[in-house]
Amino acid sequence: MKVLAAMSGGVDSAVAAAFAAEAGHDVTGVHLALARNPQTHRTGARGCCTKEDAHDARRAADVIGIPFYVWDMAERFHEDVIEDFVAEYAAGRTPNPCLRCNEKIKFTAVLDRARALGFDAVVTGHHARLSTVDGVPTLRRSVDFGKDQSYVLAVCTSEQLRHAMFPLGGITKDEVRQQAADRGLAVADKPDSHDICFVSDGDTAGFFCGGHWESGPVRSWTRPAARWSASMTARTRSPWGSAKD
Prior knowledge:
The protein is an alpha/beta fold and 245 residues long. The protein has one domain: Rossmann fold, CATH 3.40.50. Helices cover 36% and strands 14% of the residues. The chain has eight helices and seven strands, in the order βαβαβααβββαβααα. A five-stranded parallel sheet has the order 3-2-1-4-7, with helices on both faces. Helix 1 packs parallel to helix 2, helix 1 packs across helix 6 (173-182) and helix 3 (74-90) runs antiparallel to helix 4 (97-116). The longest helix is centred in the middle third of the chain and has 20 residues, at 97-116.
């Protein structure tokens, strides 16, 4: 198959791309430039989408031996993810920007463009599994429950899942890092990114109250920062999970 590998610059997406290439697919790597003004370096495990991440993705593609491109999706990301994030808080709800990014960017904008360019599927480094039940693709949890990301993929439609590949769902994160080291990928020990990628310092309240916005509901947001951090909680899930085990 002709496969597009979404490469963030992290270890998971690099190994996923390598697995797809080694499986015999015709793989092309693509890094999504999502920040309007990307930082040069990321701060430890905070954030992503920096110039450093783009360079790491390119180096990984070189080691794997696949073509590599950068797609500028900063405006689409701003409209579909960041503005949604702001609007949800303004409405008194706690948003999940990672879920929205998968729904609107990786499995809509990217997949649509990939299909238009003749690609059969998009491969990502998400920790989740796919199986087929009665001809319908079914999302399942990763074998590494601590790293499972099936819950942020639950917004994907069956048609989108038909054109998705998640080759890391059957191994643990430690095994992913070992696979990267075995292939000489420099990202083998790179820290995982955490928190909201466009709030790289982790200060969500400061993001809202620090003058980041020129339009929309934030114009009138003059209330104390505590108001906007009140609903920040640890990631939780239903005891039944978001996907089949």
